[in-house]
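Minutes, project check-in
Item: structure for the 211-residue chain
Input as provided by the requester:
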Amino acid sequence: MRTRRVLQMCLWLAGVGIARSPSPTQSPAPEAQVGVLTEGLLHLLSGIEENGRFVERQGRRVNRELRRQARELARLHTRARLVDRLWTGLKRELQVGEAREEGLQREAEGLQREVEALRDMTGRDTLEHRLSRVQEMIQVITAPGAVKATTLNTTLLQAEMEAQGRRLSDLSLEVMIQDGLVAQQDQRHCRATDGELELEDDRGKSIDLSC
């Protein structure tokens, strides 16, 4: 406001000075011309003041927009830090999951080898034991004086064969149980792999690593 008054006074004085300065060939300007010049200068000053107010409003608007953009940029920086921490945690979990997968794979292979060895050992021992028992029973039956004890030997042979059959059934059941344990171990391994290695990237795509 003070600047406007100073400019107004300067322009008025300049107009008065120009109007009163006599020219060598012209007569002094009438007072009407001085008034018109003063009004024109005042109108120009009013336009300058209006432009100043417009520029000030634009400056405030730009400042508000800059503050808003600064807040948005700060939020983006915060989100970027959160995403970085999340990605680091996911990579750590992925490494742990891979280590667990390798451990489970080694355990499954070890169990499979043990089951195969047990199956071979069980089958070999059972066959050898059965052959030995049958050979003993044949020797008993064909031994001298076995005619009198035929009924007893037949009953004994039948009982032995039934016992061997039960033993074979028990061994078969044990092998089936071992196979079931190995299958359950493989299923747990697959579920653990599915649960830990199914990730979602930052574009929303699913990484499916199921068995």
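Outcome recorded: Confidence is low (pLDDT under 50) at residues 199-211.
No further action items on this chain.
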